[in-house]
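Quick one: structure tokens for this chain, please?
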Amino acid sequence: MGSIIYLSVGRLEIDWGKNYGFTDHSALFQSTDIAEVPYYYVDENDPQNEDGEYNVITEYKVGLSKPLTQVVERITLLGHTLKCARREFDYFSLLNSFDRTKFSFDQLAQALASVDVRCVSSDDSEGDDPGDLFRRYIFEQLRLAEIVDDPDYVRFHLRHGMENLSAYTILLLLAQNPSATNLPVNWQFADVEHGGWARRGEFVKTLDQSNRFLIVTEGSSDAAIIKHAFGLLKPHLSDFFDFVDMNEGYPFSGTGNLYNFTKGLISIGVQNNVLIIYDNDAEGVSSFKRTAKLNIPSNMRVLKLPDLPAFEGISRRLGRQDLTGLISMAEVQQSSVISTSDRLP
């Protein structure tokens, strides 16, 4: 039969694959997320009980595991937002000629936000495609008959759309559910690895460069403080960010280094996702305004450290001292740098 690999929230399977055929979900995890996670199997010696239900046994094996709340933050940095999820639902509805007036994206979101995920299980559906799984099992458990006008239509026609919805969309919607907030997202890859279909390095690996952000600051203190703040406040996202210290190995000299460096990145058509961060002193503001007038490509954003009222009194007491470090920390705490609304494509 081969080996099965699952991505699940609690006991609810979000995605599955077999042998060589599986989706790479490594970007949702870090190498520190290796853990012993539960695997569920039908009891071969006694597959069904007297009620005709499958008897399920649990074994613990190596896998990747991360809290849903943290996984969702990684998903948004990967560029998949609720807006993207809605567009995906609309696209597959149109592709499959599904009448969205009978079941809308908002109704799907309502169902996934209200169901008790801890009571939803698809253990007895091994080998079904996600569409069949939805039609035969999840429909009742999500209580969709209670929120749609034509349950029979939804049950038998939505399966074609459901089988193509991405795991990212389902996870984003489940994250709105109080019963799922504290559940782990598990990637159970052990059977595929032990079956010889893939090696550990295909599951536990560093984030692809295409998904990372290069942060460029005016000085070493800015880069050091922001990097340290990520480690303290958002360690589950820190691997998304690389840093360039403009004081070390910088190819240009003179004033306006960061402005010149930005022009250089634009001229060579850099492919990385880049965040340019200026100080909020007079020179930084001036260079920020000049840079904003450049033809900034879609993979770059130009930011300025904010003027925070909380630091105005400190500024008056300290005079014209450089407050870059303090403001940098406050910027990270306010999540301005890692705002999902500014996620680069």
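The first strand starts at residue 4 and ends at 9.
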